[in-house]
Amino acid sequence: MRHFNKESLDYHFIDKIEAGLALTGSDAKSLRTQNVQFANSKVEIQNGRPVIINLQIPVYKYSQGQTIDTTRTRSLLLSQKQIAKLISYRHQKYMLIPVAIYLRGKWFKVEIGIGRKIRKYEKRQKIKDRELKQSLR
Fold this sequence. Notes:
By secondary structure, the chain is α+β, with helices and mostly antiparallel strands.
């Protein structure tokens, strides 16, 4: 089971990091059964701790009337060395974007892409190159 962020195709990544995701029980159950929405989600560093913002995990359908904020900020579980690396990338004006959420054993992991947004002219060139390659076949 792997949930993929389609918006990440608009970015050019220079590095990727795998991080653990701190979830509640109903969040984890919901991720196993339903899709997650990555719309406008990003990773930020708040008070020296990395968090994921605007990741929308729908409410688990069998939860007992709990009022749960589906877009609350969720902590990421990283080592101090990895956090320092993320902070240095942020100082270099790179974006931190969640690329995918998946299961590794029994733990949910988030793949964080570190990169910059592709400009429109770069997208057009990429499409032209792909079409040229297909026409040569």
